[in-house]
Each structure stands twice: as structure tokens, then as C-alpha cells.
Amino acid sequence: MQAQRWVGEGSKSLSLRPQNLGRAMTKAELVGIIAKRTGIERTVVLTTLEAFMEEVKTSLEKGEDVHLRGFGSFVVKHRAQKTGRILSRNTTIIIPAHDVPAFKPADTFVDKVKGRSAVKA
């Protein structure tokens, strides 16, 4: 069984999320946290979150990036054509050029995750 602790335990920051160390947060957990923090019904939060995700997908499908200041950007990255190998058959294949969705976190976000202050020179 994994250790559980509250995010911000022992500090002044307040988060309503019991954090399971080493485990990813699910959409249901995220909806629950936002609902508790804002007082908005879970169904409304879920609908809003799903609408947000759908808009990000739609924008990326059109080749448009989505920028969220202080958080990061959802972008479309182009991957060039390359040669790959199928080791079991000992043959080469051509992997065609293609686009993939990616997330690029903002510098301030990266700094917080790394645990350092976002002081720029």
C-alpha cells in the first residue's frame, strides 16, 4: 500500500488532494478537487473539463496551438520521415513524416516542478 499525504502538508499551501505518491491523478480525482475548491457541482466541472479537452483536440487537429499563460502550450510537432527497422524480420521500413500533439510547459511551471524559484536574470 502506498503512503498517502495531503499536498502542501506541513506548509501554508492548501490543496484538497490526497496525494498517492508515485501514482497519476485521474480525471475523476481532478474533477472532485476542483468541485470542492470552487463549490461548483461535479457534473458542471466534468462538463467544463471535457469541453476544454475537446477544444484543445479540435484546435490541434486544425494545426492551431493552444497557449495558456503561466501553464504551457499544447502544440503540434512535425516528425520528419525516417528509416526504422523490424528486428524480428531483419528488414528496414520507411516511417512517413507525421504530426504529433505535444505539451510544452511554461518556464514558471517547470521551475515550480523542479522546486526552484522562477527568478530570471
Descriptive tags:
single chain, 121 residues, alpha+beta, HU Protein, Chain A, three-stranded antiparallel sheet, 3 helices, 7 strands, 29% strand, disordered N terminus
Rough outline: elongated
How many separate domains make up the residues?
A: 2
Helix content: 25-40%
Quaternary arrangement of the chains shown?
single chain
Query: Roughly what is the average pLDDT, rounded to an integer?
Result: 85
User: Between the first and last Cα atoms, what is the distance in angstroms?
Assistant: 44 Å
Rg, nearest Å: 20 Å
Task: Classify the secondary structure makeup into a structural class.
Answer: alpha+beta
Strand content: 25-35%
Poorly predicted residue ranges: 1-14
Strand order of the largest sheet: 3-4-7
What's the count of strands?
7
Description:
The protein has 121 residues and is an alpha+beta fold. The chain is 33% helix and 29% strand. It folds into 2 domains: 1-63, no CATH class; 65-116, Irregular (HU Protein, Chain A), CATH 4.10.520.10. The chain has 3 helices and 7 strands. A 3-stranded antiparallel beta sheet has the order 3-4-7. It has a two-stranded antiparallel ribbon with strand order 1-2. Helix 1 packs across helix 2. The longest helix has 20 residues, at 42-61. The N and C termini lie far apart (44 Å). Mean pLDDT is 85; it is low at 1-14.
